[in-house]
Batch of 3 targets.
Target 1
Amino acid sequence: MGPVPQEDLIQLLAPDGTRTGGGFEEWIEDVDGAALQGLYEDMVVVRRLDQEATALQRQGELALWPPLLGQEAAQIGSGRALRKDDFVFSSYRENGVAYCRGVGYADMLRVWRGNAPSGWDPYAVNMATPQVIIGAQTLHATGYAMATKFDGADSVAVSYFGDGATSQGDSNEAMVFAASFQAPVIFFCQNNQWAISEPVRLQAQRDIADRAPGFGIPSVRVDGNDVLACLAVTRQALDRARGGGGPTFIEAVTYRMGPHTTADDPSRYRDPNELEDWKGRDPIDRLGRLLDAEGLLGADVTERVREAADRAANELREACVSMPEPGELDVFDNVYATPHAVLAGQRRDYQRYLASFETAPGGAS
């Protein structure tokens, strides 16, 4: 599969770091030099966290990790557009969005280390824990958005998913409901060109963004490696939803530079030339070139960003290796929101079963 055509994408920042004036500049008029540096630091830190987590998995500290390498602009650009009271429903790859929402490093890793069935308290950061069932989060986001509208609030639900999820029934059903009820929800598709080991063109004969209008949902196709364009189109979609305009579908065209997960070997199905093509569109290098051209990437900034990234990686590693092991009975916690007699009985039975090993002949006691 060759490079994706760029002429039909919303783009504000070209791969060489020049501003293109792509028609959405009004949505980022407030993004000054300091804000650009902030977006750059966000992407560098998130990439460093992702690389550290991948290393932790290779060293046996995590069971699995889903890398986001190459998708930093899509996640940071959209994530930084959100308001605190907006609610995110993501897949397992949106650790950059989780970073924007304030999720702690230990909470990002807890599930992948096998220490807990869930990573964090969704209501503490207004982001649901990652959904592994492909596309299911689109329904969750739509339901939440419908409830938000019924409550009279102007917060917005955002669902993140990959190109592969658009072939699932859940995502299509979600768009039916979202359009029917004009729910304030954004469907943010990160088209990273590969649904595990199958190229996107195998399941989508047209652009994925072309599907949404069939449900009555306006869509936009954006350069997913352009952090400014991703910020702009997300802000526009949020504004539309808050004003009662209903859902929006965003297709962020990006690329998964690494494996689907650390259990995957992309060299078995991906042309290495394709990877080289996309390296030239790297989202961090792109913004770095703009900053450099505007005199905003001096040695002091570079050093500050490097230190922030190293500090974050060290904190992530420490959070991982120092994470306490779960208790034998923790599996019964948080199954139900309120006490449940049947579950309590199962817990007592399991506790007696564990105790039997301590008292049996040849046991620990």
Note: The first strand starts at residue 87 and ends at 89.
Target 2
Amino acid sequence: MSMIRDLRAAVRPSRPALRKETGAYDTTRDPATPSAVVDCAVYRDGVRMESANPLTPHEAMRLVRRDGGFVWIGLHEPTEAEFAGIASEFGLHPLAVEDAVQAHQRPKLERYDDSLFTVFKTIHYVEHDRLTANSEVVETGEVMCFTGRDFFITVRHGGQGSLRQLRRRLQEDPGLLAKGPSAVLHAIADHVVDGYIAVADAVQDDIDDVETEVFSPGRKGTPRGTDASRIYQLKREVLEFKRAVAPLLRPMQLLSERPMRLIDPDIQKYFRDVADHLARVQEQVLGFDELLNSILQANLAQASVAQNEDMRKITAWAAIIAVPTMVCGVYGMNFKYMPELHWKYGYPVIMGITVAICVGIHRTLKRNGWL
């Protein structure tokens, strides 16, 4: 049980960490640097083997084959030429190599002979003061993982999704790293899914703000609504979030339920925890989608009601104005003999009758809610 507690403490990152980290492992390489490798280390019995000079993947693998342990190589946006040597050294499948280099893959788990290829979509919440029609709410990246018997290779795409802090936490727990590459795979999966939970909480706040604005009362106590383009933009960002979460559930279930040669049995049971958290996030994201649909429909209904209110007011005033218009039209005709045309009190009487009719119509329409 102590190992279980140590495992959870080692791989569980803090929820509020939403912003990008900076450091040796999360920055893009200098264009002058000839390699995309940002870190390469050999771990034996859970301890990182130190060397005077940075190891190359070839040197690291040679040490592993000679003395045991496993090598963990981290790369950031490698080109096909840069990745070709590593793919050849570790015998990676060409299809998996192509996916890792090209990026823009959906989350998945594939088995190739002596290795597993896993794709994770990382999600980063973009801070903003106020949601607009052009606001970017979530930013996505990718982490591809090659898991072998004695190697673990990560390929990152995008400016966020750093594994620097995760690597440090794992290195502080040799007992966990001694379980081999499968322990690193679990740690990354748990790290990614915890990131989903944190982003989901932040997106929930944005949806609550939009919902409050849509249904908050305006003048006269009626909902005033909001710009529909803002709701639509938030819905598109939630859809991007959904594309990262939904396809990953099946791979996590396979890792937690189906025995695999490359996954340590002591580690496999912890994938169930990851799958459970991922299922909860998926339900939350699906709820976001349905809620935004309802908010959008309510906002459009409010716009329609507001238009109907305006049309009723215009119609009511047109009816009132029609009375003096009709009277003026009748007495504007050039007939010699017209009723009360030469009567002394004809003008005030007609004006009084006109005003009385207009006032009566106004009161009736106001009583019926048209004004």
Note: Strands lie at 37-44, 47-48, 70-76, 108-112, 115-125, 138-148, 151-157.
Target 3
Amino acid sequence: MTSGSGITISLDAMGGDHGPEVVVAGAALALQRRPDTRFVLYGEEAAVRPVLARFPELDAASTFHHCEISVRMDDKPSQALRQGRYKSSMWRTIDAVKTGEADVAVSAGNTGALMAMAKFCLRTMANIERPAIAAIWPTLRGDSIVLDVGATIGADAQQLIDFSMMGGAMARALFGLERPTVGLLNIGVEEVKGQDDIREAGRLLKETPLPGIDYRGFVEGDDLGQGTVDVVVTEGFTGNIALKTAEGTARQIAAYLRAAMSRTWLARAGYILAKSAFDRLRDKMDPRKVNGGVFLGLNGIVIKSHGGTDAEGIAAAIDLAHTVARAGLREKIEADLANYHRRISEEAAIVPESSVS
């Protein structure tokens, strides 16, 4: 649903390491940038209401629902489901998408619990066995999409093809590309390299071209930063390690720069002269600017924000939620999947000429 011409976002106000103090402030910041947004907030009234009162404009653009239970960051997914199903702020944030009260859900809470609840509440789309988490990845060419970055461990050939289609639909929705380029992350670009499932997925994508994507073959780890393709597809174990490695490397480089610029008076003077260039670099490397993993393959869109981020990071996740809802991402994925499986069914129904007497 959309509220008139605007977007309605359900928000888990209790999620993350810092709870309402950061989540509500982030929502207020996002509202300044996107005033057509309406919010449905879920959380403990005693914790949320005093913070919400500091932001009158956000309060006026929001509906608040009290929830007695909050999912802790260290809860196991099974524990969160048992204790928080139907009544926690996380569950009700997701359920608002299912019931049509909101277009998209955002939470900075426990990733495992959020995925478990999202799968249980929203269910996977038809013909999708496993959902994926897609991340926006800054590159030298702009931005790419990488998935899966942590929803599930391992993936067979068909699941990698599903990820390719979902990632392609997301690239078209966010980047306005007619046929985004797609690559499978592998240990080499040669077709003989990699695990069996990756090679099989590559063969199928090559032999059965899909109308919504332009498959370019295998890509390697250094292609992530280069932006060699618009969509990089992998399974969740590898994708999550790649994501955490990139975030850690960005922080490491930033620390090196700060140390180098403060070492001598000449370095400090050089920093002042080149401040605008360093500011642009810092902005490009800031993980808050690309905060938000998109849960794909469910009957509804859920955005996972980093739990330890600040208000700027929460606002970035809400910005992403607004963008994917406005672009009709779920509908694009459903259409692509339906077209693909219809095509497969039609090809399977064709009787080979050699079998006809």
Note: Residues 298 and 319 are 20 Å apart (CA to CA).
